[in-house]
Amino acid sequence: MINKLVLDSSSPNSVFQLRDVLSKEIYPIAKLGRPIIILCIGTDRSTGDSLGPLVGDKLKFLIRDKVFLYGNLENPVHAKNLSNIIEEVNNKFENPFIIAIDACLGSIQNVGNIVLESKPLKPGSAMNKDLPQVGDLSITGIVNISGAMEFMVLQNTRLFTVMQIVEVIYKGLYHSILKTIGGKKSTKIFANKFTENANAQ
Q: Which of 22, 25, 27, 38 could form a disulfide linkage to 176, CB 3.0–4.6 angstroms apart?
């Protein structure tokens, strides 16, 4: 269980640190056969708040047995549909382990940091939105400075900062899933090859 871990996304070791910490968390969950839900929260209509959908977009190819993804650029999970998505996940999956990912604001010295905690995150807190807490494990990226006019701060966040954090989160998650769960089942690979061969004929 992670009390609180803070990683600097600009550090060359951050991907490996995130991979190793996540692997320790995910391995016992995978051994129990619990479905792992990666819930990427945010909207592509705001640069600062696009962190979640961008991570989801990069993880689309990661989906495999017992690993499921909600939230990407095409179908974001945001304030208007979050409650429905949480309800769907709880109805569809038995005892799911939810990894919730979202952007947040913080102090100037913490911008660019990634925070991992074994507790739910509170989406929309920067915007004073009353949204349900979600996640067994939360991953938040600090994209800009908190304070006054936070809606405008998110709108005017540097895309470079967001993408730097996105790269670390998605690579750390990707490699932790490969390390603990492995690749896709061989039957799926054979099925894809069979389809390709059939199409080629």
A: 22
Q: Are 68 and 38 in contact (CB under 8 A)?
A: yes
CA of 141: how far to CAs of 32, 43, 126, 165, 186, in Å? 29, 14, 13, 6, 35
Residue 193 is predicted with a pLDDT of 33
Contact present, 35 and 94 (Cβ < 8 Å): yes
CATH pick for 5-200 out of 3.30.60, 3.40.50, 1.50.10, 3.90.1580: 3.40.50
- Nearest one of 45, 48, 102, 94 to 70, comparing CA atoms: 102
Query: What is the model's pTM?
Result: 0.87
Strands 67-70 and 36-40: parallel
Contact between 127 and 150 (Cβ < 8 Å): yes
pLDDT attached to residue 130: 76
Which three-class secondary structure state does DSSP give residue 182? Answer: coil
Q: What is the pLDDT of residue 128?
A: 61
149, β-bridge pairs: none
- pLDDT score of 154: 87
Which residue positions in the chain have pLDDT lower than 70? 125-128, 183-201
